[in-house]
Amino acid sequence: MIYDLIRDGFSFELVVNLLVRVFIIFCVLPIHEFAHALVSYKLGDQTARLKGRLTLSPLAHIDPFGALMIILAGFGWAKPVPVNMRNFKNRKGYMALTALAGPVSNIIMAFVFLLIMFIIGGATGSLVYIDGVLYTTGQEGIAYAAGIFMMYAATININLAVFNFIPVPPLDGSRILFAILPDKYYYKIMQYERYIAIGFMVLIALGILSTPISAVSGVIYNLLEKAASFPLKFFN
Question: Which residues are CB-neighbours of 141 under 8 A, at least 6 positions away?
Fold first, then answer.
């Protein structure tokens, strides 16, 4: 979390981390929401397009409180893309695909950022991968800054994917849950949507979710890091 970096004092890493979080808000969150809108549109629902959400413009997607959570905690949200399930031929299946599109876009972006990080690090010698362990050579400069930027960007993308998979309204996980649960159970849960959302916000504010999210994110990060590190072998 950003508190840990601030507690350790002003540093190069703190500045880069803050820049990454701004980048996430204005560039990554719009891609996440655009992915929802695009898949929904391709599956037959025009709602997102008619509401002006089939766009990469950050102004159409940013939620102020969700953006603040990105700055403070490294995970948050944008405005949910409106979807009308009645326009889908397969309500549950297409709803699940639409919901999956956002987190999957984050995983893809995380992999791309890690891939760029390794290419930059290998080409400049600022990163070395030895026996499955990543080392930095301590070289400062643009290449090192770019590598750190990509690492933080990948980490936050993974956090966003994991966070959005939580089956709590209005997160993507709740829409995926709709595809799994029988209707009577899902609608029963949705009767308490407001209370569940409030309780969820309290857990976020208390930082209770940070540890489990970080643990799952760490596993995914390690898997993507190993896959993306392949190009680095050509530089070693």
Answer: 126
Higher per-residue pLDDT: 59 or 8: 59
Cα distances from 200 to residues 68, 160, 193, 196, in angstroms, run 16, 16, 10, 6
Q: Nearest CA to 177 among 186, 103, 77?
A: 186
Model confidence band, residue 66 (pLDDT cutoffs 50, 70, 90):
confident
Which of 33, 140, 193, 225 does the annotation list as catalytic?
33
Reading the block at residue 104, the tokens are 């999957």
H or E stretch including 135? strand 133-136
Q: Do the bridges between strand 133-136 and strand 127-130 make them parallel or antiparallel, or are there none, so unpaired?
A: antiparallel
Burial 200-233 (b: 16+ CB within 10 A, else e): beeebeeeebbeebbebbeebbeebbeebbeebe
Is residue 193 part of the annotated active site? The answer reads no
Provide the whole-model pTM.
0.84
H-only helix segments in 44-167 = 47-50, 64-73, 91-124, 142-164
